[in-house]
Amino acid sequence: MTTRDDSLQMPPQLYTTEGEERRVGVELEMHGLELDQLARVAARKLDLRVVDAGRYERLLCGDAAGDWEVELDFALLKRMGREDREPSSLLTDLGETAETLLAMGAEPLVPVELVSPPLPLHRLPEIESLIEHLREAGALGTSSRLRYAFGMQFNPEVPDTAPETLRDYLRAFLCLHDWLDERAEINFTRRLTSYIDAFPRHYALKVLASTYAPDITGLIRDYLIDNPTRNRALDLLPLFAWLDGNLVARYVQDERVKPRPTFHYRLPNCEIDRPGWGLKQAWHDWLEVEKLATDQDRLNACCRAYQRHLTDLFHLPGSWARTVEMEWLS
């Protein structure tokens, strides 16, 4: 199923160095639909079939791009849900009771998540259409309850893995972070969850320096020394684990880090119940990173300006976001 939506812009680099159309995965966290209900609604819209992958996980199969995933976003319950239940005994019954109580406690707080496979860029409009369909089915997003901390995440495939390319994307993100954060209007609960923190100032200054030109191992090691965590608005652990899993494992032992050749952008809210909400704003905001990263003169000038801002002891809160808005967007 392919639809056309000319309002969704595309990045300046549409293809990888191998000549393949770049792909992007999208993750949507929500409430209001139970696991099986979400799986059925999405499968009907996408013309896919539902397959059980555990008590708290479903696969939507039949897409040429790969399987879609529907899951309760709770690692412990997912692990428990993949285990076969033994014949009834006191120990088994206690274990089932504990799992049931855990699931009941998680249900009001933990989102169900829909995860697309890596889709060719031209298929992004399908996500817009799916979001509208899920909204009509009763999906709820970040702002529907104070306690909800639901996000939408993008996984754009990297155009290439040259260290200077990845450094420039990182530089562009650092320069635009304050503006992106302001645009995303992150709610209080999401900020408390510690999944989308900014990069440390000293690390930003290191990467922004005009003399910073590491090889790929140096780029990864520098990142891991200052950011041994998934808790970043732009999480590069999946990419770096794909490039050098052994090096990443020395600093981070977390089964949730899944190696893949993508930037993992996790800042936007998921406002799926809001009429008219979709990919467009958050996706176009991300494209400003792509455009800045591939415009060398503008990127170098922006890096110098942001370095001055970071070393200015008297800058006002929010001032850099306003500067970005006025001077550094495409």
What tags apply to this protein structure?
single chain, 330 residues, alpha+beta, 7-stranded antiparallel β-sheet, two-stranded antiparallel sheet, 13 helices, 45% helix, 12% strand, globular, disordered N terminus
Task: Please sum up the structure shown.
By secondary structure, this protein is an alpha+beta fold. The chain is 45% helix and 12% strand. It has helices at 35-46, 75-81, 90-106, 124-137, 163-184, 188-192, 201-208, 216-226, 237-243, 245-251, 280-293, 296-311, 319-328, and strands at residues 23-30, 49-54, 57-61, 68-72, 112-115, 119-120, 152-156, 234-235, 264-265.
Q: How is this fold's topology laid out?
A:
Layout: E1 23-30, H1 35-46, E2 49-54, E3 57-61, E4 68-72, H2 75-81, H3 90-106, E5 112-115, E6 119-120, H4 124-137, E7 152-156, H5 163-184, H6 188-192, H7 201-208, H8 216-226, E8 234-235, H9 237-243, H10 245-251, E9 264-265, H11 280-293, H12 296-311, H13 319-328
Antiparallel strand pairs: 1-5, 1-6, 1-7, 2-3, 3-4, 4-5, 8-9
Helix pairs in contact: 1-4, 5-11, 5-12, 5-13, 9-10
Quaternary structure: single chain
Distance between the termini: 32 Å
Task: Report the major sheet.
Answer: 7 strands, antiparallel
Strand tally is 9
> How helical, in percent, are the residues?
40-55%
By secondary-structure content and strand pairing, the structural class works out as: alpha+beta
